[in-house]
Amino acid sequence: MPGPAWLRHTAEIRAVPVDRALAARGALGMLVPLAIGQLAGRPDLGAAAGLGAYGAAVDDTAAPWRTRALTLLLPQLAGATGLALGRATDGRAWAQILLVAVVALISGLVSSIGRISDMAALVLLLATAMGLGLPTTQPWWHVPLLFLLGGIPLVLLSLTDALCHPGLRERGAAATALRAVADLLEATDGTWAERRHQVTAAMDAAYDTVVLRRLSPPRPGSTAAELAAHLDRLVEVVAAAPAVRTTAAREHAAAYADAVRRVADAVETRTPATVALPPTPRDRAGRVLRTAVAALASAGEEAADGRSRLLPAHPAPLRRLTGAVADRLRDPAGRRYALRLTMCLTVAQALASFSGLPRSGWLVLTVALVVRPGLGTVPARLVTRALGTTAGVLIGLAVIAVLPPGWWRISAVVLLTGLLQAYARRNYTLQTLFLTPVMLLLADPLGQAGAAVPAARLLDTAAGCAVALVCGYLLWPEDTRALVPDRLADVYEAIAAYADHALNAAGDTGTPHTLRRRIHADLAAVRTELTRLRTDPRHHHALEAWSEDLAHGEQVMARLTTTAVTGHGDAAAASRDSTEHMVAQLLRRAERLREPPPGRPRTLR
Fold first, then answer.
1. Burial 391-416, CB ≥16 within 10 A → b, else e
2. DSSP assignment of 66-119, as one string?
3. What confidence tens digit (pLDDT) does each residue in 15-37 have?
4. Residue 319's pLDDT is what?
5. pLDDT for the residue numbered 571
6. Do residues 593 and 489 make contact, with C-beta atoms less than 8 angstroms apart?
């Protein structure tokens, strides 16, 4: 595709496989409330319930049942609350502006606590905007109640699917991590870095699925406890994996990889693993790798020291939530983002209230989706939002022009919802393409101006994109320093602490294990942020330097890990002085990364 690199990256379509079960649940979940409303002679009430079905469809995942329950129910409650708040303003302009400001501030503060809180905060914000644009002829509680009821069929379908296959997603996530490590063991020098990143992503996903997204630790003897033990031992295999690149173990790399894949198959199918390992090598690094793979093949519930280090103590859910909120409030970058989002949405609602635009929350909704950083950079979202909305409006106009109200339009909404579930995760333009006509067709029975709705949505989108560009990008750009260089500096300091601990506490095995997990997760988070920033033309030149800093951190961490676990590597014979020199160099790099650019004062931390 011709054009600048940031635009090509924005238009990239990810190769995400179609989840047919997800698409079928979305279509069926939308069909039930719309069909009930049509049969009862109240398509307007069916459309209101359809909003809840749509919200549940967007939040639906292929996760374990506990995660699905939280991911579906909390956003549904947030959506109903947002609709009720929006309806309660009764069309009063200043009440609407104040409400949007307060909800935007709350949403911005709690959005980064976790994936589920981020989804709930986003749904609260979007539902509030939608509530502001709905007609006020019905009692205020009708639409929020129907929103909750409309999501029930899909929630039941999703939870039933998860409960009928207990542990399926957890085993699948663990097996994916195992196969990623097997691929790493067979990597060449040219593919090593990319496969190491894939291992980190797969390990983080498995760790989240098996351990973190739980209200309490796994019970002894449960599937989750067994999988946690496999992940615990898999970390040791990852740490020893660099041995296959530089030692005699290279000739047995395929055998080790095959053994790990057999363990993956056994984990996924819940069958015993039959593993054949090569003879014990003479070099220490090779012996450590063979020992780690052998331990993985015979993993029980406990690690070698009698406990699973991947099972941290779980505080009470309320304490976890309050602690996360307190951490967010203490974070200067988090507060700046919340204020930036609040300013953008307050301006958007003021424009919607006093400009004479058709009654709608679509303008505020557009600004919210464009400005939120977790959804991409502002330039990327502007382009994809504009293209997707325009194409979606054309589809909606075609459906309205060709299909009569009633069952034919219901069929179109059901089909578009299934397509949304099937292809939305590939590209945001595709998501908007299918989302827009669904919302247009649901808005018509709710009494929103009939045939004038498509034109109004295009006008709202254009105005929202303009507000987001000016207020959320030109006047108040996102704080990139807090997202990349400051975070890289934190990682360098963590690597220095890891090296210092390895130097002064050689007998401690549990602490390095925890430090490695955190450092690799932080490195992966920085890489994800760099990938996101590729869609912003402002950072074209800085990205190269930041990528080099990230690569240096990954290389240093790989050398330190290999040395700590196997005693092999370039630094194996290094003296205390050389290790202390490495620590000092890392700290100097961290200090350089924290230095503000010319013309910008140093921020207090």
1. bbbebbbebbeeeeeeeebbebbbbb
2. HHHHHHHHHHHHHHHHHHHHHHHTTT-HHHHHHHHHHHHHHHHHHTTS-HHHHH
3. 777 888 888 888 999 999 999 99
4. 67
5. 42
6. yes
